[in-house]
Amino acid sequence: MDILGWFTDPFAYAFMQRALVVSLLVAAVCAVLSCYLVLKGWSLMGDAISHAVLPGIVIAYVIGLPLVIGAFAAGLACALMTGYLKDNSRVKEDTVMGIVFSGMFGFGLVLFTKVETEQHLNHILFGNVLGVTAADLIETAVIAGGTLLIVLLKRRDLLLYCFDPNHARAIGLPVRVLHYGLLILLSLTIVSSIKAVGIILVIAMLIAPGATAYLLTDSFGRMMGIAVAVATASAALGTLVSFHINGATGACIVLVQALVFIAAFLFAPKRGLLALRGLRPPKGPAAEGGGAKAPSGLFDSPRASLSSFAPVARSAARFRRSKPSTSRSA
Q1: Which range among 62-66, 68-72, 195-199, 245-249 shows the weakest confidence by mean pLDDT?
Q2: Domain limits at 208?
Q3: Into how many domains does the chain fold?
């Protein structure tokens, strides 16, 4: 088989064409949202909601509702329960998320074993993008497209909220609305990804593109562009590889994204491991006389090392302040 045929032959089949379109749609919306999750530090929140949708899927199947409605309701319930427990107990948020999502996931597994269904559990957990129908494609396009449109329309407000919630509150942004709005968008993104990669592997698509782009740039706008490019290219390549090796498509997509992240981790111009080691100041007396200073950011938390995004956040604040205020009385 020639090189051109390696890329084109799989798309002679209709199911491969649908698989590619769904993978690209899911990859694009996950990549955009992943930038905000990395900036906010909500990686575990995505993991929690993705696991928590299982009982909603089973209950929706039992009562005859569309599975996406049950998945969305369960994901939103997980986010709300996490917020309530965090606000009304001494337990930290990451601990609460671990308890809530593991409990809901276990509940979903118990329900699934007690319900007679032709649905295969592996298809829910790991996706079945090669079995996507035309109706599934339209459903995914509507959910992913709507979510992506909302994120892009509110990108400045979401950026300022994720970067500095106190500043966002001080200039009059509805911080609570943005908080729960971001959770709703996250739940919708996970629902749209179930067909492609399932509820287990979706967390990789929600984290890897943003984490990879974060290592490669200091600009949030470029970070979003790089994340989308990495995610869509990985989705296309992973779909092709899965066809030729007869492997799971979702797993191949996630594996390609992981390999791209490792490459960025090693070879990124400023924050790559090799770049940092080359610029690391010498130890001992030589360090006192000067030496190259290694740029921070490889092992720092995103919230601490994304200070370079401050100009973008401040521009969002100035844009908000430039609007006439109607909340103050004369």
Answers
A1: 195-199
A2: 3-282+292-321
A3: 1
CATH of the domain at 180: 1.10.3470.10
Cα dist from 128 to 22, 144, 199, whole Å: 11, 17, 11
- DSSP for 71-107 reads HHHHHHHHHHHHHHHHHTSSS-HHHHHHHHHHHHHHH
Burial class of residue 8 in the structure, from the number of CB atoms within 10 Å of its CB (0-12 exposed, 13-18 middle, 19+ buried): exposed
In the chain, the amino acid numbered 256 is V
**CB within 8 A of 123, min separation 6: which ones?**
131, 198
- The structure's pTM equals 0.77
User: H or E element: which one contains 50?
Assistant: helix 43-63
Residue 298 is predicted with a pLDDT of 46
- Three-state SS string over 243-301 comes to HHHCCCHHHHHHHHHHHHHHHHHHHCCCCCHHHHHHHCCCCCHHHHCCCCCCCCCCCCC
Domain assignment present for 147: yes
Closest CA to 160 of 150, 146, 171: 171
**pLDDT higher than 80, residue 156:** yes
CA distance 282 to 293: 10
CB-CB contact of 265 with 273 (8 Å): yes
CA distances from 14 to 186, 188, 203, 251 (A): 30, 27, 28, 21
Check pLDDT > 90 for residue 330: no
